[in-house]
């Protein structure tokens, strides 16, 4: 389990860095104004970790602890992840749409579904650890709010594309049936 968590932490750091770089480059090319003094909320990150971990725990007890195994008994792990991810995205879609553009909301929905594939993969490879799923979920949220200026440069379209690419690699390597190590 430790090796999977280490890989995920390193992957998360790399994905966040790539997402920030892609967004800044896109904004520069489009002539959008960039903040002269971008601030990263370093002192509030520990508070974010605590709050987002608690919030993620409530979601993951339901999505992962309650719904994932019964779905995987009837369907493949990939199908279970896609079903849960789609329901989760639909649940959040209206609030996203009310606060952001339709493109932002669609990107966030794509990101949510792809990240659910990664959460099910993580869950299946950590001896069904809801804690690992919760930690990953919470840290994804912390990463979004840790972008400069409290997430003002977070772009779910970029994040969604990266998450889909990582999820595709996971499915290709571990297989859609179990998303787990082959014995």
TrEMBL record:
Coiled coil: none annotated. The chain crosses the membrane at residues 45-66, 78-98, 104-123, 130-151, 157-175. This is CAAX prenyl protease 2/Lysostaphin resistance protein A-like domain-containing protein. Residues 44-142 form the CAAX prenyl protease 2/Lysostaphin resistance protein A-like domain. The keyword Transcription does not apply. The keyword Transmembrane helix applies. Keywords: Membrane, Transmembrane, Transmembrane helix. It holds the Pfam family Rce1-like.
